[in-house]
Amino acid sequence: MGAKGSSIKLLDESRRRLTFASASGLSEDYVAKEVDLDKSLINRKIIEGSYFASGRIEEEDYYQYPEDIRREGIASIVSFPLRVEKRVIGVFSVYSGKTYYFQDSEIEFFSLMGDLTALAIETLRNQLNKSWFVNRAAHELKSPFTAVHGMLGVMRNEYLGPLNEKQKDTLEKSERRLEMVSSLIDDLLTLV
Questions:
Q1: Domain range holding 83?
Q2: pLDDT band of 129, cuts 50, 70, 90
Q3: Of 16, 68, 59, 62, whose CA–CA distance to 79 is shortest?
Q4: Which of 51, 61, 71, 179 is the most exposed place for a label (fewest CB within 10 A)?
């Protein structure tokens, strides 16, 4: 579409700063900076739910790093909140080296891209959280099962004394159940 670049900035846990999560067409120095919402009126407005478009960057006095924007060769910008339902998780921006570059149809398209990007980010976050939880839970379960399996082995080998037939049968059933649960935990760990 002829844009100079684009970026995705995500809110940190304090919801007071934005960090670049992804960028294209921008220098490493530019994307290395954090955006402090107390110092960036534009980004604060976007986080509050409004989109922003500027056709002539040099006329605006809303930016935290105006000299860096000029150094990047950015002349116009359009930015949207990355919104999942009613919660804003970041900012999606598209940059141009030409003044008054973005048309209404492009702004509508980029707004849709921002919505889709927010959904993709939130879906990925949920999957990562779910995977982390399942992995952690499976590992936490594995340790006690290993310990119980070892204790049952001590009993089966009659190190604690002789077993009658009923005790041997109960011990054998317990070991089979334990092996089934251990196999299930191994399957969980394989899936994660």
A1: 5-102
A2: low
A3: 62
A4: 61
Torsion angle, alpha carbons of 23, 110, 87, 48, to 10:
90
Contact 10, 34 (CB under 8 A): no
**% of the chain beyond a pLDDT of 90:** 6
The confidence band for 77, taking pLDDT boundaries of 50, 70 and 90, is confident
β-partners of residue 5 are 95
Is residue 108, in this structure, part of any structural domain at all?
A: no
Check pLDDT > 90 for residue 164: yes
Residues 9 and 85 in one domain: yes
- 75 in any annotated domain: yes
| Distance (Å, whole) CA 6 – CA 60 | 19
